[in-house]
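Rotation project, supervised by the postdoc (A.L.). Task for the rotation student: set up a whole-complex structure prediction and record inputs and outputs verbatim in this book. Inputs entered:
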Amino acid sequence: MNGGRPTDLGRPPARSDINRAPRAGAPTHAFLRRPDTCKTAAMAALWGAFVGVVISVGASAALFWGTHRLFALAERRWAVVAAVSGALVGAAAGALVSGIRSGSESEQLLAGSQLVWIVGGAAVGGLAGTAAGLRWPLSAARIGAVQSRLRALTFVGPAMLFVALGLIIPLLRTMYLSLFDRRGTDFRGLANYGEIFTNAQSLDLSGWSGIFGSRLFYGAVVLFALMAAIALYRGRRRGVRADFSPGTVGIGLGAGMLLSFAVFANLRGTVMNNLWWVVAVTFLSTALGLLAAVIADRVKRESLAKSLIFLPMAISFVGAGIIWRFMYIARPPQKSQTGLLNAIWVWLGTLRPSSGGAWAAVAVLAAVTILLTGLCAFGVRRRQAAIAVGSATAAIPLLWLIYRFVGPGVGGSAVGPNDEPIAGTILFVQESPFNNVWLMVVLIWIQTGFAMVILSAAIKAVPADLIEAARVDGADERQVFFQVTLPTIVPTITVVMTAMIVLVMKVFDIVRVMTNGNFGTQVIANEMWQRSFTEFNLGLGSALAVVLFLGVVPVMGLNIRRMQRGE
Amino acid sequence: MTRPDGTATAAPRSGGRGQDPAGRGSDRLGAVIYRFLRSVPAWVLWLMVIIWSVPTGSLFLNSFRHRDDQRASGWWTSFTEGNWTLENYSDVLSSGQQTGGLWQALLNSFAIAIPATIIPIAIAALAAYAFAWIPFRGREWLFIGTVSLLALPNQVALLPLLQMFAGGAHWTIPGTEIVLTLFPDFSLAGTATAVWLTHTAFALPFAIFLLHNYISTLPGELFEAARIDGADHFTIFWRIVVPLSVPALAAFAIFQFLWTWNDYLIALTMLGAAGENYPATIKIASMAGEFGLREHLLSAGAFVQAGVPMLVFFFLQRFFVRGLLAGSVKS
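Outputs recorded:
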């Protein structure tokens, strides 16, 4: 670990220890031993914040009002305006000059206190301004133009100052630092980027052959084949090569999802994890949100359902991570499970093959399967393809479950030290690579509400006469949705997905709280934080931040184009 | 009745939904089956609602259980066993070695979230008005440039900002030994001020975008009439724009308050080891990282931290949703 802050800033690292951040698990709790002073310190901070708000808002308002009075003067007293402007510029220049230091000794080069320089600068600038204002009086039209430009500046200026100081200059400096070494002194070119993309920790493609052996991959292939078969069949009936109905596109999307999981489960590393997050969370949250929005549009108690799905949006990522940790707890198999998911899993494991519980489960499942078969037959008789295919599809997992109950068994079971069967648990958080998915579930849980609310508003904004017209033309419910509603809300879906990509790209809190990047769950934002703020590797940390930035550049471009079209 | 998205419930469009697709569903079995099939989506939705509520609900129940109960069994057993307690909440709020000290962390959260909400609103409203109604050269590209920073990940600015707060910003003039101080060292690192200054900068693109969307739809004749009466931009802004924009300002305020209250990354970066200034998110995150003494307080702590946003959410959901909608869909 590099001990202090960087020393290239023109002065010794005065506060070297203050920002050495604690690791996730070991914060500094020294302050807890002095409870009384802490409480007053917190109150003081609160009051400080209030006073700060009052002073800064008040001062800005005064400055704002003052400049406006001043600009109103411009028509009558141009010289006064020139004098005051000159004084302000002079004061700023004085302040800047008084801060000039010699780099090596970091001592002041110029004599005199800061105040002297500022006041002196203001005086000189004011005189110069007065002289200029008297010497070159402006025409009324010119004054008007200057006036309006200065007015716009007072409105936009504060925001632009914050954006420049807080976003643009830091962004440029991060790019600059990313070309230097860990202390920010020696130029390394693109070596930091090379390190990110050649390091096996961040990009490990060695497991590529595993893709073709995974069940996810076979599932994707089967679904793709199914999609192609249906499309070709429908195409032949219509006389075109392939006809893609919404259903086949849905199958294709599902297959793509399975394929991406197969790929990301085998190509490992920080960068691939981040891509996995972006693909899975964006797609699944949007899909689930769309599903909820569409159904909620036509049920009773819509607002209650939507509120409850939307509620996680109010919870912090940290809080959500903690909430889901309680769901994922895995305790030693001998003890009773306190996490809901493992409790269910272990309970399923107790329904061993040829035990009473297993036969009961098989009986229930078989009954449901028979009902579904009847439904399928009903659908065939009524020539309702959706009912027939839907019930047949729903029966497949049930048949599989029956097979599991009769044969190998369902749920968590393992063999104990003396060959006796014991409960087996899932280590949701520790077992790589699918622990990544369990972390993604947390974000999906949060973001589904976001997608739902926005898509729901879009669905309600579809013109009612459009839908009425489609109905009059004889379209049924499904056709109305897929051929009227869905095409209308596609732009909103794009907006939701781009917003989600930007958010997921920089996922940090959830990973840090739940695993801190251990067990193969590292993502770029957490890597960046660890490199920058626990190891103080400025170069690598900045390069990681720039990689994140490059990831959202396409989205920014898209947003700019959309705005240009919109105006 | 209002929906979460703030619109009043429109007349349901479900009129044509009951029709029988086959057109000959006169037999009773067919009618029963179709009615059942039509109710399936609703069941799917309510199943989803239950799945979405269980995690929060289980945390809530766990927060009322004794330490030993939490360790011995799952929250679902407490339905039959009872044995509830409020001890966890009192412990997690009070400060001490074995407890949470969350009360002061909550105050710190307010000390960060309140300035980080008010200041961006003031600055952004001015800028949004100018972008919408004051013509000046370069207005359009300046606006688009600012708003495109919406997508900028916070991470790209954190390191230089921390350096600036910790030691000021200095620039060595190339080829010389002379250093210009661009931003003096105010020793801001580790203070709440650094946190809310950072939040202010990061919030501005979204705030300007949202408020501009709203302010630009205000009727221009209003401003024209005011200008004829001799009002300047300042008067128009203060007397007309601000009162008329209250819904948008409220929407952004709630959005920004929740965002800063729930923020973890920026506070963690800017506060470093200055534990006495930690907001509630960092406090509960560090409790989660210990796996030890105070784990039984974690659920209560998480619930206390989430309490404020949940209250805001339930009482001001309308505004929150409006902010979300305005932020993502151009009205």
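Student's summary: Chain A touches chain B through 171 residues (CB under 8 Å).
Supervisor addendum: The longest strand of chain A covers residues 413-415.
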